[in-house]
Amino acid sequence: GSHKLSSAVCQATDRKCSATGININYSDSGLFGYAVRGTGYEMRAAVEAANKVFKETLSDIKSSDVEAAKNKLKSAYGYYAENDANLMYEIGTKGRALDLNALFQSIDQISQQDVAKFADKVKASPSTASSAGNIMNTPVLQELE
Questions:
Q1: Sign of the torsion formed by the C-alpha atoms of 26, 34, 43 and 142
Q2: What are the pLDDT digits (tens) for 96-116?
Q3: 57-81 burial by CB neighbour count: b if 16+ within 10 A, else e?
Q4: Whole-structure pTM value
């Protein structure tokens, strides 16, 4: 799901670090960004590479990327629905099974403009950063903006 991030970080650090996208939703807010893992010595290059790709992606929303993401999302939900444990979870917590047809229709309605509008909102939102472990070579937030 985060191929661009992973590739950029692996190239910048000779495959010593990794990165992935983050998307955590709440009813009134959320957290959207990326996480980088690796050795302390390689973190500056890893975080800077991930930040560059993240900003470039937010600034250049392509129709092909939106369609690919929609297909991946539908595929993930289809896989999720095939698992009996997930079916039981859906019935136990929501009182009914997941309606894949309705879900897929909702996903298909997402447009490139919707994604671009969301990207603009992310770019306009204040940034935050968090580090743990050997952070000696990790850039601070002000260096990334």
A1: negative
A2: 998 999 999 999 999 999 999
A3: bbeebeeeebeeebeeeeeebeeee
A4: 0.81
Distance CA 44, CA 53 (A): 14
Q: Are 116 and 61 in contact (CB under 8 A)?
A: yes
Give the burial string for 6-25 (b: 16+ CB within 10 Å, else e).
Answer: bebbbebbeeebbbebeeee
Contact between 30 and 23 (Cβ < 8 Å):
yes
Structure tokens, 97:
């099974």
Taking the CA atoms of the chain, what radius of gyration do you get in angstroms?
18
- Check if the beta carbon of residue 141 is closer than 8 Å to that of residue 130: no
